[in-house]
Structures are given as structure tokens and as C-alpha cells.
Amino acid sequence: MNGKVALVTGGSRGIGRNIAKVLAGEGYNVAITYNSNEELAKEVVKELEHSGVKAACFKANISIKDQVDNLIREIEKELGSVCVLVNNAGITKDNLLIRMSEDDWDSVMDVNLKGAFLTTKAVARGMMKKRYGKIINISSVVGVMGNAGQGNYSASKAGLIGFTKSMARELASRGIRVNAVAPGFIRTDMTDSLKEEVKEAMLLNIPLGYFAESEEVSNLVAFLASEKSDYITGQVIQIDGGMNI
Ligand code: NAP
After folding, report:
1. Catalytic annotation, residues
2. What are the counts of helices (DSSP H) followed by strands (DSSP E) for the chain?
3. In angstroms, rounded to a whole number, what is the distance separating the alpha carbons of residues 44 and 20?
4. Closest CA to 18 of 215, 230, 245
5. Is 93 helix (H, G, I), strand (E, B) or coil?
6. CA-based max dimension of the chain
7. Are the C-beta atoms of residues 178 and 168 closer than 8 Å to each other?
8. By three-state DSSP, how is residue 92 classified?
9. Distance (Å) from CA 14 to ligand 1 centroid
10. Domains contained in the chain, CATH given
11. Whose CA is nearest to atom 8 of ligand 1?
């Protein structure tokens, strides 16, 4: 990849960690961010370096502008300007509308939607100068179909889809491609915390009949990051075992 730099937000765990690993395997120098768990992030950096690329981790709360601007400056100093941005960091604070607090609404919006706005804005100038860039937003199938008990989360992920399409139109003339990936049920810490009966009920709605591993999402992200997908922009690609056909 001739020193191309990829940034994966929330790359310390789950899907983001695996995306970082697959991109490092493809030869990108990879920056990951974490929010709380430094030890884990450092472990991931070592794992990425095994692929023979440069890797670094940065602590940043992606919902805070100053931290994001500082993050991009640090990455540019240490690895170079970002060519592939994967907006992966995300949180859930599930509840039915009646029980959902304003804080639960705001924090999910701030991380999942505002975070992607801040990182995209911070890397866009560098990509525009190079007249090339790939932005991949990790949305969710519930951003397309909705889900009871996830009003905040599904709204943030639907917002991310609107943002993806707008940025694809706005940045296309500068050679920047922007796409979204909408996973269904992927085995990570985020889904491990669900009750067994909830998981069983979800499985009944998945025609392929199984939950996916992070790697399936990572392979799709790697394709969208590569030149092989250069004629694709503004798309939302569902990877959900047929959950939303
Ligand atoms: P996860 O295992 O809970 O990992 C979340 C990652 O985001 C962690 O690295 C975490 O860092 C980071 N993070 C959280 N808040 C942050 C903040 N304010 N600033 C910066 N980083 C922050 O989640 P996952 O299951 O891998 O999900 C990854 C993405 O896929 C999310 O956007 C999620 O909505 C989406 N998704 C997941 C599924 C699924 O079934 N798992 C399905 C559809 C979509 P720390 O560990 O340091 O806190």
C-alpha cells in the first residue's frame, strides 16, 4: 500500500479491532483509537505490527472536537495523512422510549453520529488535497429497518446513512468515495451482553440462520477501502445474513 494510512476509530475491540487487523494484512499503516482501555489498544498495536506495517493507538473521545482535531494532527505527525477513514466507534444505550433518558439519547447521538461528522471533517482536507480518499461508515441494519428499544441507536445509524449519502455527493468531485456498511448481528462485546432469549428471537429472523464473526464485516470494509471498489460511492451495503431483505 506504499505507506497509505488507515484510521479505524474504536479499533481496540470487536469489529474495529478486526478491521484494523485485516487492513494491516493488506499493507496499510494503521492508526486505531480507543476511549478507555489503553492496555487493550497497545496489545492491538503489537498484533498489527506483526503484519510488518506501522501501527499506533491514540486515546480520543470522538464526540469531542478538540480531541478529534488533536488526534488527526498526531496521526499525521506519526504516520502521515489519512487515506482511509473507518468510522467504527459506536455505543448502545438501549431502552424503550418511555424509559429512555435525555442523556441516553444524547450520548448515543454524540458518539455514533457527531463523532463521524468530526472525524470526517478533520480528515477531509488532507484527502481533498490528494484528490483521493475512502470513508467507510459502520452503520447498522437497524438504521435501515428500525428496532423497538433502540430509538436512539437506530436514529443515530439512520443519520449516519444520510450523512454517508450527502458526503458521497459532496466529496465525489475530489475523488473521495463514501460508503456505509450496515451489519446485522455480529459477535462482539456489544452483542454478548444481550439476554439469551433475545438472541434466540433474533436468530429466527435471520434467513441464513447464524450470527456472523467480525471478519465478515472486515473483508467488506477492506474491499470498500481498496481501488477495486472505486466506482462505488454513496451506497449502504447490508451484511446481515438476510435479516432485512
Ligand atoms: P464494541 O465491541 O462495543 O467496541 C466499541 C469500540 O468503540 C471500542 O473500541 C470502544 O473503545 C470504542 N468507543 C466507544 N465509545 C467511544 C468514544 N466516545 N470515542 C472513541 N471510541 C469509542 O462494538 P462492536 O460491536 O465492535 O461495534 C463496532 C461498530 O459496529 C459500532 O459502531 C456498532 O454500532 C456497529 N455495529 C455492531 C453490530 C454488532 O452486532 N456487534 C451490528 C451493527 C453495527 P473502548 O474499549 O476504549 O471504550
Report:
1. 153
2. 10, 7
3. 9
4. 215
5. coil
6. 52
7. yes
8. coil
9. 7
10. 5-239 (3.40.50.720)
11. 10
